[in-house]
Amino acid sequence: MNPDYRQPIRQRFLRLVLLIALPLATACVASGASIRVGMIGLDAHAVPWTQIMHGPNVARPISEMRVVAAVPAFSADVPFSNDNIAKNIAAMRDLGVEICDTIEAMLGRVDAVMLLSIDGRPHLEQARPVFAARKPLFIDKPVAATLADIIRIFRAAESSRTPCFSNSSLRYSPGIAAMAKDAKVGRVLGCDAYSNNQSILPGHPDLYYYGIHGCEILFTIMGPGCQTVSRVKGETADIAVGTWNDGRVGSFRGILRGQTGFGALVFGEKGIAPSGPFEGYEPLLVEIAKFFRTGKPPMSAQDTIEIYAFMEAADESLRQEGRPVSISSVLEKARKQADAPGNP
User: Taking every pair of C-alpha atoms in the chain, what is the biggest distance, in angstroms?
Assistant: First the structure.
């Protein structure tokens, strides 16, 4: 007989609790200590975010983070990435950041990681060593280039007991976040969210790059529970309409021509009101700092996956000439792909 089974029940229970709790405790940064941050990907938000974190007047908890090491990890076939990587590497060095040749070399120098590569295609492979090292991980949009890879990433995070989350910065802009409970609007009955969608990354669904911002606004205000998506695309706009499980309807308008911006018009039981605009990166950085400290994501993997399933269903609807596509159908397909042999 296994000796464990001869131990008193209380002793076995306490041992189990310790085995579960210990990995979680080591996967976040102790209170009071500076958070040494590593970055993977220097082609997008790395420079402006580091400038904010290292700024002389930045407040807590953002000021508790210090970027100490980074891996460039650019994508040669993405023009924006290729065109900006050299100057961004120089800028990061000027900010006191050590440039490492590999992710593994960087991981030994840091407490937590921001995966900021503009290209979602390599994100799964870039995240694997972070999960192996069990460092808290924030992934910038897009999480990955396919819904199946997004599912694989969150599965790997869960199986390795590594805290992980991803959000667009628009979710935390105060004038957007507050709309879900705005007293002037009351219970939200519908939302028309919008953002620029003029840029599309190669190898990604259409909405994953810039459309994610407007879709994140939509789900921030409407909440989860979308069931079907229909999409039409013209010369000036790209529109995806979702029907929620309680009958409410919300839409994303991707602006293709004319004045661009970020925001929403919100329809409620008491009133109709516009949301506030994008208010900078600081609100998201606050959430990331708290996450690195506690290991508790501000948003669940399930809710994040639903937003990407909405965008995937929008692509499928366009392929089907605007017919409604269920969220459940694209999730089922993606899960089968994620379960395919050779894909952990």
Answer: 74
Query: Rounded to the nearest 5°, which phi and psi values hold at 127?
Result: -80, -25
In sequence order, the 6+-apart residues with CB closer than 8 A to the CB of 303 are 219, 224
Q: Is there a domain that residue 260 lies in?
A: yes
The one-letter code for the residue type at 293 is R
DSSP code per residue over 31-95: TTS-EEEEEE--SSSHHHHHHHHT-TTPPTTGGGEEEEEEE----TTSHHHHHHHHHHHHHHHHT
pTM here? 0.90
- Residue 42: burial class (beta carbons within 10 Å; 0-12, 13-18, 19+): buried
Q: Are residues 158 and 176 in the same domain?
A: no
User: pLDDT tens-digit profile of 171-214?
Assistant: 999 999 999 999 999 999 999 999 999 888 889 999 999 999 99
Expressed as residue numbers, the domain containing 189 is 170-281+310-329
pLDDT at 343: 61
CATH number at residue 28: 3.40.50.720
| 290 located within any domain | no
